[in-house]
Every structure is written in structure tokens, then in C-alpha cells.
Predict the structure.
Amino acid sequence: MLETMLKRYTIENTSDYYNALREVLQEIALAGLYRGGFFDKAAFYGGTCLRIFYGLDRFSEDLDFSLLSTDDNFTLEPYFKALKTEFEALGIDIDISQKEKKGTTAIESAFLKSDTTMHILSLDTKNILKGTPVKQQIKIKFEVDTNPPLGFETEAKLLLQPFSFYSQCYVVEDLFAGKMHALLFRAWKQRVKGRDWYDFEWYVKNGYALNLEHLSTRARESGDLSADETFTKETLLQLLEAKIASLDMEMVKVDIRRFIKDEKVLDIWSEEYFLSLVKMMKIV
């Protein structure tokens, strides 16, 4: 099954193999969660969701989920057995451990809140496939927002391997809103996350609309918009233009390179280019 799933990818070097293998393992993890009934309570969102179910042409690292309704007592532990069973059926041993947060960083306060649970799934790739060129351990991080900003919509998306099943996912307009929230308000200090800008370009190029109301809800939830403020289209455009003007474009490109196959697509990236994309955005 692993070899069959890997045949979908064009693998030319070790980096290609590592990215493909990680994505295959992510899909197996989703299958295990499905068998355990996880998607009755939660929805998949974030870059990996966009990659697997909506066709984003870059690789992604983590599995991000949101409960469908707030549950402060939620834990992933009841689903560990289903996850392990799914991997063991393919001859893969896994270890699942909870990630302990150390202090409260700017990133945690915005995204990894006290009501977000995190676990790490670790796999020794040397024991997965005979002759694998990847000699490092693959770690897949799970994050579940147990008190999410609501007002999002979901849809069932079909995955055919390792078997056919449906995953509950954010609709693409709300995924776009979540990405825009990260792009505008994520506190990275001196670091720039080029993946956010790559995804922004992808949404615009593919003609997807952004759900402004869900973005507003997220901004209020994170404290970036007060309860009495109105988040308009004009507000969004002004924030985006200011963010673009402050970008270190070379740092943006450095962050995204390891997740894409063709670096030449970044040649056009510039302040002027992203301002042009802003004008082409669809907003609902």
C-alpha cells in the first residue's frame, strides 16, 4: 500500500522522497482518525488540508483540526488506538506523545492557545520501506483547537487511499480566511513565513473567494479586532498593502523553497506583484 501511494509522486531526490513519504503518512493518520470517529467532532483545516483535498501545489508539515463546537475537556487520547491500529496494519510502529508548551510565546498566544491540544506522532523511516533513502525520523504534529472561532462551514471531502473515506474539512472560503488571519496577524518577530504568501497567491490564482465575516470572527477571537470594530473590505486591503510594504522578499522566498519543486515560480515575487494580487482578490 505504501509503495502504491508513493507512485503518485514524481521523486527525483531525497527531499522529494521525504516530502512524499510524509504526506502519505499524513493520509494514513487521517484514515486512522476517521476509523476512530474523530470527524464526527472535528474538521480538518490548514495547509495540509489545502494540499491533500483542494490541490495546493506545495507540501505542508502539520495536521490542524478544529472542533465543531467548543469542548474544554476534549483530548486526542481516545483516538490513539485507532491511529496505531491503522499504522500497524501497514507494518509501521508509531509513538504518540503530547507536546508540552514551554511558556507563552507570541505564536502560542495567537494560535497555540491554552485551549489547543498538541500531540506529536513520530515514525522511524528506516523501518518503513526497504531501501528508503530517508534516514531521518519523520514527526507529524497534530493540533486541535478545542475553542475555535466559530461561524465556519465544512464539507465532506473524499480520500481514496489508504482506503476510501470522507474527511470533514473547512470549505475553501473559510480556509482562505484562516490563512489571511495568519498572514496578517501571526507574530513571528523577525521571521517571515513565505508559505503564507505562497498560499495567498494560490487562492487568488485559482479564483477562490475569501469569507470576510469568518476572518472578522477570527480577528476578534485573537484580540486583533475589538468587538465594536467593523472589519470591512477596505480595512482588509489597507492591512494587506501595509504588510506587503514591510516584507523582506528574500526572507519570504527562503522560507518557501523547501516546500516547492520549481523555484523559478518565485522569480516574479515582488512588492508590485503582491499588490497586483491584492487587487485581484475575491471577497464575499
